[in-house]
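Reminder to self: keep the SMILES exactly as supplied, no canonicalising. Ligand is magnesium ion.
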Amino acid sequence: MSDLDFSIPEIYRGQDISQLKGNNIDQPKQILESYVRQFPINRHRGTNLFLYGTANGQGKTALAWYVLEKAKTPNMHAILKRDGTPDFINAEQTRVNARSYSGLGIRFDKFLDLAALKYDKEARSDLQAMADLDIVLLDDVSEWALSANRHEDQRALTSFLKERAENKRITVITSNLDPKGFQLIMGNTAWSALNQSLLEVQFTGGDIRPHLQTLRQQ
Ligand SMILES: Nc1ncnc2c1ncn2[C@@H]1O[C@H](COP(=O)(O)OP(=O)(O)OP(=O)(O)O)[C@@H](O)[C@H]1O
Ligand SMILES: [Mg+2]
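Structure tokens returned for the bound complex:
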């Protein structure tokens, strides 16, 4: 792929998520830590993630990148026992089953810009390569990101999600829309593809951005 890679935006890189505190973030954090511990099962099932909350600055993107970063360098692995229950092992210690996943994160507005380049060979092949990755983050699938051509935007998203669902590949979405709003704005078919195997994680905190400077000085 050309300029698309797994690089994580600087403010979300190498996060110690124990630094994310208060603001009702504990529950989403626990759910996603457990999701990451059970990666092989979630990978097998193609369990998608929908991280949503109407406010800005709640930690949705931060936790989404945490999931992707762990997918790239996992060390706790669950292997499936014969009865289908997980058995946790520490792959770093045992050097067993160490598996990282191919993945990439992209802001939804940029994804739509890329998808709009219908007759550009390189853009087509980037989009196809993206559809084939184990795990893809579409960050901020929200109304502001849509172009003047909503129909084309819906079509690009739906086609991408359908193809990934058919191959049980994980898509992580963050959004300011709740599930109902998502269906209304992005379309029922897009939701249905995502919902084939889905973990919804609701964020209920307020916007932490105005308080970040004070938090970091503490
Ligand atoms: N509970 C928290 N404690 C400390 N820092 C936090 C917390 N939640 C988020 N942050 C930090 O605040 C900034 C904003 O968070 P983030 O970008 O994840 O918000 P968001 O929910 O994706 O917002 P938006 O809906 O606007 O995209 C990030 O730098 C993140 O690391
Ligand atoms: Mg965000």
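Points to follow up:
Residues 11, 20-23, 25, 56-62, 140, 174, 176, 208-209, 212, 215 surround adenosine-5'-triphosphate (ligand 1) (CB under 6 Å).
Residues 52 and 80 are 29 Å apart (CA to CA).
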